[in-house]
What does this fold into?
Amino acid sequence: MRYVAGAGVVNCDILYSGITRLPSEGEEIFSTGFDLQLGGGIPGIMVNLARLGVPVKFSTYLGNDFFSQFVKNQLEQFGVHYVNLYTGTGMPVNVTSVVITPKDRTFISHRDDFGYNDTMKQQLFEQLRGASIIRMSNHLYEVYSRIKQENPDTIFVMDTGWDDTMSLDNYAKYLELADYYTPNKKEALKLTQTDNVEDAARLLSRYFETTIIKLGPDGCLLRENGQNEIFPATSGIDPIDATGAGDAFNAGFIYGLYHNYDIRTCIAMGNRMGGACVSKVGCLSGYLTEEQLLREFQASNPSR
It folds into this structure.
């Protein structure tokens, strides 16, 4: 059976919304909105893919703490097949307080660190090796490289999130291994040490025939054959919270790859999933089912 796989730490978001400002030290303010949800990153992609009817296998790290139990219940509720590789006694889930203001979001996070031992890496290799598409990140290079050598047809989609140490030198071996990389604008500029997306796309195109940069409310940039093309974001959306929008885009994009759509269709589907996400608070509140995605796509592209 064909499936999409990925491995990573789960983010659990405590969301505060409906405030007009951040408190100063010593102050307390109350939000009008509050929620506890699975956060962004690989879990958000896996959940959205499962909602779109794509078989997924997710390798992760869960303990016996309150937040890990919440995550287990959520993954089972969303129909995400997962394998827990954690055997320690700490809290391996990344817990984040997300404060949503009219301008942006702020984050404070915590989790107990743990290392990847040889047993974990072998387990990850066994879990990921049969996938048609793997969402990769900027770790576990040895595992990804072994899989690529064993099955060159495996498609690797890399998405990293923000990292203060991002640079082309630090990420080179991952970029060379990946088939697609989907950074947002801020990440692309940081990685390439440039001040505009055109230069960033040009530098990234040294690694990819098809270069993609997510532009948030401005849509998505595609660079192919030396030419840049902008795919506008979904129109008619009243954005409430951008948390998880990039992961929703990736789910739509991977859905397109899974079903062998051309790259432009994959990007358009990614934009539609991202647009649905920002219409609600949290990473997973706003989404499209497979039927809704295909209906919306066909309505805006009647010739397809």
Q: What stands out?
A: The radius of gyration is 19 Å. The mean pLDDT is 92.
